[in-house]
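Quiz preparation item.
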């Protein structure tokens, strides 16, 4: 039996979508097929692995188009790799590798500078030179321990930041503007187009897993909308200590963040607030009078692969000037294996290949991991992942690549 790659068209889209969902162990609802086709899928970016004997789709993959914010605030085009599955009947025959290779070639041809993904398993993508660039925390807190010891809002009564409920329709109109502002000011964040907003806000009963429909609240300051929260309630009766599940909380000012978390932590009849995928440097922990009550479970968020090393390195800004030669060693991309010299002046880098001896040696996955400032180079040296060759090279690498804030990717895909 042979596997070959086919394009996805309107003729095989339904079979392809069914195969994606089966690959993750789900049946597919007809709405889901229509929604994906209308609001999200870019057919030309999808791929099907077909068994040439049975002519059935046995593997699926593809990418969504995004723009990723890098240190300094520029955005770069990113292939958001998704939909990767191989049927259990055809595992370990190379379908996944074949599809990943085509998706990367296609992305490079389109001019994407990076590829990114959320991984179902954290050991799958290192082999393709993806590095863990953005981490995040899943939170849980009993709101009765939600007293603030510190807050950027010194006097709640006097504060201009106020939070109010809105219905789904109003929220749909207000949230994209706030999200977009956050996207441009947050390293590691991705844009969301209007189709994707519709896709994200789909709220039929079957996607709620027994919780309530979404509630929405907006924070406004001086007439500007500066934050929002979308959440669900999970409770069985009026007197039950229920759970409030934050679906997404975004703010563009410290005061909006404080006002929205004050609002959430003030809820009565709630035994637990859960909020997944929070930034690793979110200030809430530092605001609480009993911070240990905020339990934070770390998980890997966005994995990044640099598709065009010089362009990616030149797109971000740096915290220190100087010259550094980075030797990259890649088993999966022999063409990328080379030494790159970064000349940094006024926070911008010019990047060229060189035949000189490198100051540091790492894999492209490790370069991706430090690219957004999500991990310090020292940690990767200690982990035996980055080799320092010349004296002082770690301090240089650290000084150049460090960022003022940790990356955060609010958008899961
Ligand atoms: C993960 C998955 C797509 C791999 O598909 P596949 O076609 O069997 O993968 P390949 O045959 O191309 O294998 C590629 C490499 O990954 C390794 N690999 C694949 N799946 C693996 C797994 N679950 N655990 C460990 N290694 C795995 C293979 O051993 C191979 O390594 P090698 O190149 O060193 O030989 C498939 O198992 C699957 O559909 N899983 C369920 C859905 C899922 O988790 N998708 C990923 C979404 S992010």
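Solution:
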């Amino acid at each position: 039996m042979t596997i070959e790659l086919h394009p996805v068209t309107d003729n095989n889209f339904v079979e392809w979508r069914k195969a994606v969902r089966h690959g993750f162990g789900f049946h597919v609802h007809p709405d889901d097929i229509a929604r994906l086709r209308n609001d999200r899928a870019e057919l030309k970016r999808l791929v099907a692995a077909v068994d040439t004997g049975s002519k059935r789709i046995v593997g699926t993959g593809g990418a969504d188009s995004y723009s990723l914010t890098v240190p300094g605030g520029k955005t770069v085009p990113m292939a958001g790799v998704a939909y990767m599955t191989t049927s259990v009947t055809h595992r370990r025959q190379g379908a996944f590798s074949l599809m990943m290779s085509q998706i990367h070639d296609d992305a490079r041809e389109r001019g994407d500078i990076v590829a990114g993904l959320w991984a179902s398993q954290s050991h799958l993508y290192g082999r393709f030179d993806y590095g863990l660039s953005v981490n995040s925390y899943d939170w849980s807190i009993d709101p009765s321990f939600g007293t603030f010891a510190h807050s950027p809002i010194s006097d709640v009564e006097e504060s201009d930041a106020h939070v109010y409920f809105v219905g789904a329709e109003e929220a749909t109109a207000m949230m994209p503007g706030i999200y977009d502002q956050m996207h441009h000011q947050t390293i590691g964040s991705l844009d969301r187009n209007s189709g994707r907003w519709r896709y994200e806000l789909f709220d039929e009963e079957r996607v709620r897993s027994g919780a309530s429909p979404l509630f929405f609240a907006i924070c406004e300051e001086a007439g500007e909308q500066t934050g929002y929260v979308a959440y669900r309630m999970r409770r069985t009766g009026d007197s039950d200590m229920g759970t409030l599940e934050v679906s997404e909380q975004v703010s563009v000012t410290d005061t909006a963040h404080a006002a929205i978390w004050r609002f959430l932590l003030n809820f009565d009849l709630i035994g637990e607030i859960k909020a997944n995928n929070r930034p690793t440097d979110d200030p809430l922990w530092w605001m609480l009078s009993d911070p240990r009550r905020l339990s934070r479970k770390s998980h890997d968020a966005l994995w990044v692969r640099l598709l065009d090393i010089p362009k990616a390195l030149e797109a971000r800004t740096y915290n220190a000037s100087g010259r550094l030669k980075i030797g990259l060693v890649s088993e999966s991309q022999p063409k990328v294996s080379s030494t790159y010299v970064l000349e940094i002046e006024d926070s911008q880098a010019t990047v060229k290949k060189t035949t000189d001896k490198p100051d540091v040696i790492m894999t492209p996955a490790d370069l991706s991991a430090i690219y957004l400032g999500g991990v310090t180079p020292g940690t990767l040296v200690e982990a035996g992942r980055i080799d320092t060759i010349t004296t002082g090279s770690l301090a240089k690498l650290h000084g150049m690549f460090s960022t003022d804030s940790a990356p955060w990717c609010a958008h899961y895909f």
